[in-house]
Amino acid sequence: MADILWKMRAMLSSDHSSVVPINLFVALLCACIVIGHLLEEQRWMNESITALAVGLCTGVVILLTTGGKSSHLLVFSEDLFFIYLLPPIIFNAGFQVKKKQFFRNFMTIMLFGAVGTLISTATISIGATHFFKKMNISSLRVGDYLAIGAIFSATDSVCTLQVLNQDETPLLYSLVFGEGVVNDATSVVLFHAIQSIDLSHINSSTAAEFLGNFLYLFISSTILGVVTGLLSAYIIKKLYFGRHSTDREVALMILMAYLSYMLAELFYLSAILTVFFCGIVMSHYTWHNVTESSRITTKHAFATWSFVAEIFIFLYVGMDALDIEKWKVVSDSPGTSIMVSSILLGLVLVGRAAFVFPLSFLSNLTKKFQYEKIGIKQQVTIWWAGLMRGAVSMALAYNQFTRSGHTHLHGNAIMITSTITVVLFSTVVRQMNHLCGEQEEK
Amino acid sequence: MADILWKMRAMLSSDHSSVVPINLFVALLCACIVIGHLLEEQRWMNESITALAVGLCTGVVILLTTGGKSSHLLVFSEDLFFIYLLPPIIFNAGFQVKKKQFFRNFMTIMLFGAVGTLISTATISIGATHFFKKMNISSLRVGDYLAIGAIFSATDSVCTLQVLNQDETPLLYSLVFGEGVVNDATSVVLFHAIQSIDLSHINSSTAAEFLGNFLYLFISSTILGVVTGLLSAYIIKKLYFGRHSTDREVALMILMAYLSYMLAELFYLSAILTVFFCGIVMSHYTWHNVTESSRITTKHAFATWSFVAEIFIFLYVGMDALDIEKWKVVSDSPGTSIMVSSILLGLVLVGRAAFVFPLSFLSNLTKKFQYEKIGIKQQVTIWWAGLMRGAVSMALAYNQFTRSGHTHLHGNAIMITSTITVVLFSTVVRQMNHLCGEQEEK
């Protein structure tokens, strides 16, 4: 009897309309999984590209059926992304990461993730300021340029992981992935600094303050994640949960992992870093204290959750790429839009090169043995593998440039459409290149 | 870098406030699981009661800290309940139900669920009209009385399942549980009928129309669930998903089950019935076509999901029971409020007795062997076991009596507070009784 009352109310208040998009979205997710599975043999596709393609097609269909009014089904919500979709992805990454490799390369990862992101952000910000000021794009302020630097320095670890193989290239995998996570902590500090420091009065203590702030955030986020993970292990071991029920163990693991993420949000820490370390600790301690069936369940349930969240994001990005409103604003100046996208792509390439090669050189200086060093070929791979910009960049661009829905501001619309272009282009090109490389090997 | 931009925005738009309730809720869910586990030995408590108690305590604390303003953290949303919490509970019930028992007693279940709910709704509606009209409770119309009948005929299958044991009393379990699910379909039709039929012009064809409508809804909902379940089995078997990945199988099962629920919503069918049959078919066919690890994962993941959703509901009901606004409205007439609650409790008892005993008698007439018949002791258990009113009743009462937040209407406030009283009372009393009975047996 539950649903009828709801339905009646829904029909009266026309809330039933929310059922249609959910249906379509779930059906499309199923379609992506089935198509992704069917195309797996071909090796020139994966779920991400499939989801992007399916999203684009759906966008076209909706665009045609609604008479060019909208390609949207759901309004993009940062809450949806940062509260529901991102935590399982990052947690699962920590849960499944090869811990030995990760900790062996800890210093190099820190160097790449922290210093590297700083260099990249600075390069892109300076480059963007230089070029865009010349191009006379209005409505962008200093804060926007710095944001652009941060947005396009966010490596898409989600997508990167699908290109690199943890078993074939463990060193590269842990470097690129670890960098992506640390990346986040750096950016938190960057923005804290940008927002809190008066940009017109930069003095000598700014750098020190910045460093202190960064260390505080990184260390406290890590500690929070580790403590929550250890606490879950302690509770489950001490209370011997498996005695009664597997479900309780699994529920407690999921809830405590999520709690670590939300606690970090509460204390304004880096939630992504926290949940990542929570995942590492849980897979190292908690996981060994639960029953055999809990172990199998958590391993696959977390992976599935993360898998669905990823497809969801790509599906959304694909559908949103066709949002007619944004393209209309920029359609009177297609040249500018293409120029901006090209410049940003160029800056991403340069910004990444600006830290991968020098920092690899530095890292190699500290290694004694030849096999520990990062060869020039591997450096190129690291540079190339981290070029993809994905869902995180999209979410940030939406956040920065759609304040109270102001996409009709010319500068903002251009930045959004350019971000979409860069994301689609980098993802597709990287994927193609990866597959060509693979076929050459065969 | 993800979270900082969001945080900045959040701080500016004071959205950060939503992080606090999520934190508290997740922490309380963890606490409920741990306490429930610790008290399991005592046997006089379970997670539901724990969650209710924890919710009540939290409500008191919030009430005191906010200076008596509010005990709310989250605004109750029917979407949250019907789109996110209920589907996993019902799906899991179908997935884990003992199919042999269920189908052996299919006719009896149908009799109880369909005819029984009708009798119960009629009894309660007539009784409520009779008593409440005398008590001069304003603002209740004919539709409200019929709604009251339906609200208090909704057996709380969630709670009932925790009292009956599937292994110890398989016949009773399948009867009571099956009844609870079919119950839903009946109520859908009831409300369709109430809304669509002009209540002032009831003629002879009304009953026929009603019956046809019911059969249509029941059959089409079942078919939708069965077809979706079979389709998932076919896809997974035919495409041999396990070859590549366990995660894809699990994801596809979850998504297709959810799709069946949402499709039923889309076509105005009984979504609960659909997802229940989808669960049965999936556990019977799909489950046997997936890999061993998928089997373990789905079994425990579904149970965990359902488990967390149940705790969530009880926690919410506990917290909401103290909502000061509703009690304020009724505090000027405590006598009326107590009378209404007592009358409703009495009507629930009578309404249930009015169909359990006669229908058991009818059912026994069709059985040849003595062991197939429902003994008088079992009839009492069925009557007693289905008395609990729970989260579904709450959700429906909110739906019916808080239209656009009008709880300050006297009649509506009384109905909400009475529902809370009946739910708390029936749950706690049933639980106590159950445990006393158990201790006597020892």
UniProtKB/TrEMBL annotation, chains A, B:
> Topology versus the membrane, per the UniProt entry?
Multi-pass membrane protein
Q: Where is this chain primarily localised?
A: membrane
Superkingdom of the organism of origin: Eukaryota
User: Where, by residue number, does the polypeptide cross the bilayer?
Assistant: 20-39, 51-68, 80-97, 109-133, 214-236, 270-288, 300-318, 338-359, 380-398, 410-429
> What Gene Ontology cellular component terms go with this record?
plasma membrane
Q: Where in the cell is it found?
A: Membrane
Q: What are the GO MF terms of this UniProt record?
A: potassium:proton antiporter activity; sodium:proton antiporter activity
Q: What protein is this chain from?
A: SODIUM/HYDROGEN EXCHANGER
State the organism named in the record: Salix koriyanagi
